[in-house]
Write a structure and sequence with these properties.
Protein name: Regulatory protein RecX
Organism: Hominiventricola filiformis
Strand content: under 5%
Subcellular location: Cytoplasm
Shape: elongated
Number of strands: 0
InterPro entries: RecX_HTH_1st, RecX_HTH_2nd, RecX_HTH_3rd, Regulatory_RecX, WH-like_DNA-bd_sf
GO cellular component, one term: cytoplasm
Length: 175
């Protein structure tokens, strides 16, 4: 019987001690659930932990399942961060990627910094140019108010002020 279709009254309460066979059975279920979750897509350790806890496994079983999949190399936060950055660095700023990884994916800031140190630095100026083109920026007809709004939008996207001003200087000689 699949655990998702049982009624809440059928589930044992966490404070009850389970017999040894039930404990190993639940351990096996948690490991299988972890493998099934990772089967669909790569995830961080924090995301997997959250999914397993949502499936109402005890914290001990969750930690056991995570250790199990880690031992086989199915979960590796450093690999995940490297792939995430390499795939998205052409669309988003460094700061935006860092925030997504840290707050949405649950990756520690130290690991993100370590991966960025290993990767070659990316020039964000082409991304800024593409954003300006997308917004229809034309230096000869854009007024000061619109220019300031574009700068503010770029800063909110995580681009550095120096890069934004450098691109604007290149395109229209603005200072």
């Amino acid at each position: 019987m699949d655990y998702r279709y049982r009624k809440n009254s059928d589930r044992q309460k966490p404070e009850q001690k389970l017999p040894k066979t039930d404990q190993t059975s639940n351990c096996r279920k948690a490991r299988l659930k972890a493998l099934k979750i990772l089967e669909r897509m790569d995830r961080t350790e924090a995301q997997l932990r959250e999914k397993l806890l949502q499936a109402e496994f005890s914290p001990e079983l969750v930690e056991d399942a995570i250790a199990y999949v880690k031992s086989y190399g199915y979960i590796d936060d450093e690999r995940y961060v490297r792939n995430y950055i390499e795939y998205r660095r052409e669309q988003k700023s460094r700061r935006q990627l860092e925030q997504e990884l840290q707050y949405r994916k649950g990756v520690p800031q130290e690991l993100i910094q370590k991966v960025y140190e290993d990767l070659e630095p990316a020039d964000e100026k082409p991304l800024i140019r593409r954003f300006l083109e997308k917004k229809g920026y034309r230096p000869e007809i854009t007024d000061e108010k619109t220019r300031r709004k574009l700068i503010a939008a770029l800063l909110r996207k995580g681009f550095r002020m120096g890069d934004v001003l450098a691109v604007l200087r290149e395109t229209d000689g603005w200072s």
